[in-house]
Amino acid sequence: MTKTVLYPGTFDPLTAGHVDLIHRASRLFGQVIIGVAANPGKNPMFTLEERVHLCQSVLAEQKIKNCKVLGFSGLVIDFANEVGAHALLRGIRAVSDYEHEFQLAHMNRRLSPGVESVFLLPAEQYVFISSTLVREIATLGGKVGEFVHPIVEKALAGKVVV
């Protein structure tokens, strides 16, 4: 049986750290679904459709064959069950991430005991990268090329008026 993992997130924008985790998950699971969350409460820079398109474009260039990108709204665990995910993939960059992810994992297990949580650590060169920091650097006119794919860098430049 092919195991499916759901990697949920806002991906506003997709960073090199996200892509690192997707590459690694694609070697561990038969199918990786990138679940781009609508999450309007976070006031994203990119629309849901733009974020889905950016993820699809970057992953197509990366030639990761066993990945699919889907947008969703609502509870992550409901979406995981809808797409038949066996596990949720979460990245942990620092100890501060662990506490929040620990709570989410236990709540998700309570809501759907059949879906496991799997945690991966990003490669060392990506530990400090976050979508929030990338957006802030781009908004303030800084260069973000080493933190995101060129497709994302171009999309950020189109959104930012400096």
Task: Write a brief caption for the model.
It contains 6 helices and 5 strands.
What does this structure look like?
The protein is of the alpha/beta class and 162 residues long. It contains six helices and five strands. It has helices spanning 16-28, 48-62, 76-82, 95-111, 131-139, 150-159; strands at 4-9, 31-37, 67-72, 87-91, 116-120. It has a five-stranded parallel beta sheet with strand order 3-2-1-4-5, sandwiched between helices. α4 links the parallel β4 and β5. The longest helix has 17 residues, at 95-111. The chain is globular and about 45 Å long. It starts with a strand and ends with a helix. The mean pLDDT is 94.
Q: What does the average pLDDT come to?
A: 94
Q: Order of strands in the sheet with the most strands?
A: 3-2-1-4-5
State the helix count.
Answer: 6
Shape: globular
Query: Roughly what fraction of the amino acids lie in strands?
Result: 15-25%
Query: Tell me about the biggest sheet?
Result: 5 strands, parallel
Helix coverage percent: 40-55%
Q: How many E strands?
A: 5
Distance between the termini: 51 Å
Rg from Cα: 15 Å
Instruction: Spell out the helices and strands N to C.
Output: EHEHEHEHEHH
Low-confidence stretches: none
The secondary structure category is alpha/beta
List keywords for this structure.
18% strand; 162 residues; alpha/beta
Q: What's the SSE blueprint?
A:
Layout lengths: L3 E6 L6 H13 L2 E7 L10 H15 L4 E6 L3 H7 L4 E5 L3 H17 L4 E5 L10 H9 L10 H10 L3
Parallel strand pairs: 1-2, 1-4, 2-3, 4-5
